[in-house]
Amino acid sequence: MSTFQPNEPVAHVDVHVEHLPGATLVRVAGELDHLTAPAFEAVALPAARAYPQRLVIDLTEVSFLASAGIAVVLAAGAEAPGKVHVVVGSGFMRRPLEIAGAGEVVRLCTTREEALAEA
């Protein structure tokens, strides 16, 4: 039998910030849904405001991306127009962001190196 309790969150996300020369890197791992997006937002939006030279959001370790996570990416892009680069790889993470029009607000990159090297 399951011991699931209705008030227990079932999703998990880890968000780490690293300050690099000329960029701030936000690495996200886990699931980005309505339960975990606030933790991502609490890091990404202040980073976009405080370090506007370049914000790199690495989503390559995200296993699930819901609309709430996409909304945070778009909000970060709105906070620092032209300065937010999102690492999505070439797989399943790229498509929902493309459909949502994220490429109009942020730069979608395949690798972290590409995002950090972009001028």
Would you kindly provide a written description of the structure presented here, covering whatever features stand out?
The protein has helices spanning 37-50, 67-79, 94-99, 112-117; strands at 13-20, 23-32, 55-65, 84-87, 107-109. It is an alpha/beta fold and 119 residues long. A five-stranded mixed sheet has the order 1-2-3-4-5. Strand 1 (13-20) and strand 2 form a beta hairpin. Helix 1 (37-50) packs parallel to helix 2. It starts with 12 loop residues before the first strand and ends with a helix. The mean pLDDT is 89.
Helix content: 25-40%
What is the overall number of helices?
Answer: 4
Domains, number:
1
Q: Mind telling me which CATH architecture this is? A: 2-Layer Sandwich
At the third CATH level, what is the topology name?
A: Transcription Regulator spoIIAA
Overall pLDDT level:
89
Question: Globular, elongated, flat, extended or rod-shaped: what is the shape?
Answer: globular
Q: How would you write the strand order of the largest sheet? A: 1-2-3-4-5
Report the top-level CATH class.
Alpha Beta
Summarize the main sheet: 5 strands, mixed
What does the radius of gyration come to? 14 Å
Distance between the termini: 54 Å
Structural class: alpha/beta
The proportion of strand residues reads 25-35%
Q: Give the topology string: H per helix, E per strand.
A: EEHEHEHEH
According to CATH, the homologous superfamily is STAS domain
Low-confidence stretches: none
Domain STAS: 13-119
Protein name: Anti-anti-sigma factor
InterPro entries: STAS_dom, STAS_dom_sf
Organism: Amycolatopsis methanolica 239
